[in-house]
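Complex 449.
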Amino acid sequence: MEATVKEAAPIEASPRDLKRGLPPGPRMPRALQTAIWSRQAQWMLEQSRARFGDMFTIRIAHEGTWVMVTDPAAVKQVFTGDPKVFHAGEGNEILRHFLGDNSVLVLDEKAHMSQRRLLLPPFHGERMQGYERKMTEIAAREIAAWPTGSPYKLRPRMQAITLEIILETVFGVHEGERLEELRAALRSFLDLTTDPRLILPVVLAGPSRIKSFPPFRRRIEGVDALIYREVAERREAEDLAERDDILSMLVAARHEDGSPMSDAEIRDELLTLLVAGHETTATALSWAVERLVRHPEKLERLRSEVLAGEDAYLTATIQETLRLRPVIVIVIRRLTEPVEIGGYELPAGSNVTPCIHLIHRDPSIYPDPHSFVPERFLDNPPGTYTWIPFGGGVRRCLGAAFAQFEMAVVLRELVKRHQIQPARPESERPFRRAITETPRHDAEVVLSP
Ligand code: HEM
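Predicted structure with protoporphyrin IX containing FE bound:
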């Protein structure tokens, strides 16, 4: 049950051993690798590690070349490496057209740290307590309306909950016409990043032409108008200091030189939080339920501990879900200069990709790695470089505490209210939607009160 950094071979090789260029990897053409990656990423990763070892290279269309690292010591080297050398924002360039030039996701180095510093305070662990009441109300209200007695796909319902929680805690918009307008505009914006019919033209025309494509322009202009109206009104709000929503905190935040964030900066970061936090958390919640219904004894243990007011098993269940079914399977850093990792001198321009999926399935770190065993985390807290569903270093997910807190609230409300059975006999396999790995049938279950 060891969950700490395993002893790894020294990363630095002597100059005699140092190999130039990229580690080996599948030989098939890039287009074929891309096709397999989009359908069977986990399988491809597992096959490649079995064949090529701890470090291997795969080639994906439009993404350049990914050097997978699967050893915790190498992952540590990447996550703690100089942010000037390990760029994450560059790899997210496509998001710039949706999220804007100020988004923390697309920036690197100084500009990134400056935005990240402004966004950090609202996400501190202790602030989460302040959101608990609102999150619980939303979860309880939504879950009470779910039908019982017939098969029901949970993922869209979980998305509805995570969207309501974002509207309340991030945007601070509570009720009435304004909430409905904003909800509709944000949903339509989110479709741009997830609906294959809308994504296809981007792939065909190339991201730089997105804005001239009418469905994009309309949706982005629609959401921008509503966000700018909220920002303008919040700047005038007399109760700004008492408000605890993230928009209000960003309005009050100051750059190091004392200047406020511009409207465009706030708009870009709000949409960033929406895109980064909505689908991911809903998917993680769907996986938690999908795994629990396949293990009724664990679901029962969770329920009885939750009813007794205890949180340890709930926390371990969330950690184990994110280990076994990480929503995102890799994170990417593009090298701005040559770097020596795992005995290779990797050239500038290559992408180093800590592989969340393979680290989480390493039997030397997690015995019986393919089984769902929340108990493994009861006495062993997750290791910084061996449990990485939220990435790491200066790019670690800003919403990690928020997401886990939200998952705990929603799961608590769900198991308190309903008995849950799987709708299908077999486990659901991961299925890729945009960049997230979702349950193939959207976590289909049958609920009974
Ligand atoms: C279970 C849910 C979530 C998962 C699995 C997840 C995962 C991730 C991952 C893997 C990264 C990239 C980290 C890296 O490159 O090292 C990331 C970045 C980020 N996430 Fe999350 N995330 C989740 C929920 C959230 C939520 C709820 C929010 C905010 C409301 C959020 C906001 C962000 C932001 C702003 C970044 C960019 C950080 C930076 O570049 O400095 N995420 N997330």
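The chain has 15 helices and 13 strands.
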